């Protein structure tokens, strides 16, 4: 929110319009139809920096073949959520923080082809059972914080943070 003040302002104006100043946000206010930009901002936050960037290792209980690769039973499989989040085939300009990509208002050619909830919380039988609780908690945290506060950098921190948003946590030799 400090790096993208215009996004913070747009989320806050959505909260102001729907909730106003006379009551706190509550979970009953949650919904894509009610506050689409807040939902898009949550999705984009998780896509931009997946909290568990290399998903907990899995282990096949029998031999398997996937897209021509033979995977012997017992192999350690690490799904790379970070690489999925940075795949330009799924997300146009993947390093940019852009909630609009999840809204219809965006140019349809840049609409994501993958929902971040389908890789940020893991896969298959071991997918995170706390996903809904996590998303509701995040929504409450963001809605309450931006309802009450404006988050800004102090002047003395501004120059240090200026380019932080463009940094990548990881780089891969074979990124497209
Ligand atoms: C943004 C918040 C969260 C993220 C990004 C997240 C992500 C993940 C990921 C990636 C896994 C591994 C899934 C896999 O092995 O494929 C996992 C597992 C798990 N998560 Fe979460 N999680 C979050 C919040 C929570 C919350 C709030 C709870 C509980 C209240 C929770 C409980 C668990 C448990 C118990 C597992 C182990 C599931 C198993 O191995 O069968 N998580 N989570």
Automatic annotation (TrEMBL):
**Which Gene Ontology cellular component terms are annotated?**
membrane
Co-factor requirement: heme
Gene3D superfamilies xrefs: Cytochrome P450
The GO terms describing molecular function are:
heme binding; iron ion binding; monooxygenase activity; oxidoreductase activity, acting on paired donors, with incorporation or reduction of molecular oxygen
Q: Where in the cell is it found?
A: Membrane
The pathway to which it is assigned is:
Secondary metabolite biosynthesis
Matching PANTHER family: CYTOCHROME P450 MONOOXYGENASE ALNH-RELATED (PTHR46300:SF2), P450, PUTATIVE (EUROFUNG)-RELATED-RELATED (PTHR46300)
The name under which this protein is listed is Cytochrome P450
| Source organism (scientific name) | Tulasnella calospora MUT 4182
What are the leading ranks of the lineage?
Answer: Eukaryota, Fungi, Dikarya, Basidiomycota, Agaricomycotina
């Amino acid at each position: 929110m400090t790096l993208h003040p215009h996004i913070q302002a747009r989320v806050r104006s959505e909260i102001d319009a729907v909730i106003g100043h006379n009551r706190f946000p509550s979970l009953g206010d949650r919904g894509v139809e009610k506050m689409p930009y807040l939902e898009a901002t949550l999705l984009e936050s998780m896509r931009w920096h997946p909290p568990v960037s290399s998903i907990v290792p899995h282990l096949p209980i029998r031999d398997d073949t996937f897209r021509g690769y033979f995977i012997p039973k017992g192999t350690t499989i690490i799904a790379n959520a970070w690489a999925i989040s940075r795949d330009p085939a799924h997300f146009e300009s993947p390093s940019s923080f852009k909630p609009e990509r999840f809204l219809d208002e965006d140019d349809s050619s840049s609409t994501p082809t993958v929902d971040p909830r389908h890789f940020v919380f893991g896969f298959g039988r071991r997918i995170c059972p706390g996903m809904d609780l996590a998303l509701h908690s995040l929504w409450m945290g963001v809605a309450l914080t931006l309802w009450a506060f404006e988050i800004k950098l102090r002047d003395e921190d501004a120059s240090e943070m200026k380019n932080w948003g463009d940094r990548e946590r990881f780089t891969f030799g074979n990124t497209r």
